[in-house]
Design goal:
Distance between the termini: 84 Å
Oligomer: single chain
Radius of gyration: 38 Å
Number of domains: 2
Length: 341
């Protein structure tokens, strides 16, 4: 536990993957390794750290609107910012560990939801670029998170922009629903027409076969001495050259889509590990011990930094005193003596 806390405090990446193997083709995270060894508390701690680091890795800053509360990446606390709940009078250890684990679940859920929303915005951006072939719909990371940031509104006031957007969404949904119903009805009508035409063709099948046989025997074989329809071989059609640029773009998009799918699967797995930690008292206690170790390491680091700074100041003062003493000695040596009276 102390080793894991020390590595995370020093900036180790909790979301790295091991080399792929036949049993685990996508690799395994540190949380998976800890869970396989039975350390569910460490697994939940590492999974929460991976989610918060993934969100901070996106490097998306939130723009504050007037007096709105800070939301987005700032609302999710990193592991270094979390502190174990202090033990008070009358508090039970199980209750404190449960409170800390529930805080971890809330933090991990917010991080996973915001990462998923950012991925959806990026996917929409790629679709727009693929459809229009220009960079007019490029969305920066700041705009992406500002679109999903939740703003705090004062009670009793309504936002006109939100109402207008809701009306537009409702109108588009109604038009889409009407178009979908129309296409379904048209498809059913086409199927009915196809069945009727097939019935008519099968009804006149014998007449058509007899007519084709007469045409084949009399006209083609006897008069023209040809091989007939049975020996007719159509010429193969030449295939048009495929577009290499479009195929390469599709391949790149498929690769990005597959990578994003694997990332979302890892995020959901990490969130599930954090949630499963709440169900086991031993895992909750282990998570609290990790938080205490991290807090202890941070306090030791602060004390060490302050002690180093004060010691450097003392060394500088000693050097200054030594220089002053040396100057005084030099003044005594080179000071001219008064002549005897």
């Amino acid at each position: 536990e102390r080793t894991v806390a020390s590595l995370i405090s020093l900036g180790a990446a909790p979301g790295l993957l091991t080399d792929p193997k036949t049993k685990y083709p996508n690799g395994r995270t540190p949380a998976d390794l800890a869970s396989a060894q039975g350390h569910k508390g460490i697994a939940g701690y590492l999974a929460e750290s991976a989610l918060s680091d993934q969100l901070s890795f996106l490097n998306l800053d939130i723009k504050e609107d007037n007096n709105a509360d800070i939301s987005g990446a700032n609302a999710v606390r990193t592991v270094s910012e979390q502190i174990a709940t202090p033990i008070g009078n009358g508090d039970l250890t199980d209750g404190l560990s449960l409170r800390d684990s529930l805080t971890a679940v809330c933090n991990a859920t917010q991080a996973a939801a915001r990462i998923h929303q950012v991925f959806r915005v990026k996917s929409f951006q790629l679709k727009q670029l693929k459809e229009y072939g220009s960079d007019n719909f490029g969305i920066s990371d700041e705009d992406a998170l500002s679109m999903i940031a939740v703003k705090s509104h004062k009670p009793g006031k309504r936002d006109e922009h939100v109402d207008a957007a809701a009306i537009r969404i409702q109108n588009k949904f109604r038009s889409w629903k009407g178009r979908k119903d129309y296409l379904i009805i048209r498809q059913r009508i086409v199927k009915i027409q196809a069945h009727v035409r097939g019935h008519q063709v099968r009804k006149n099948y014998r007449k058509i076969v007899w007519s084709v046989g007469i045409v084949e025997k009399i006209i083609l074989r006897w008069r023209r001495k040809g091989s007939g329809l049975r020996g007719f071989k159509p010429e193969p059609l030449t295939e048009a050259p495929s577009m290499q640029a479009s195929s390469s773009k599709d391949d790149d998009y498929d690769v990005l889509k597959e990578g994003r799918k694997q990332t979302e699967q890892r995020l959901q797995k990490a969130l599930a590990r954090v949630k499963s930690m709440v169900q086991y008292p031993e895992a909750r206690d282990q998570y609290c011990r990790l938080l205490n170790v991290v807090t202890e390491i941070q306090e030791t680091k602060v004390v060490y930094d302050s002690g180093t700074t004060s010691s450097e100041g003392r060394v500088d003062m000693d050097h200054n005193l030594i220089d002053i003493a040396a100057l005084l000695d030099e003044e005594d040596i080179y000071m001219p003596t008064e002549a005897p009276k």
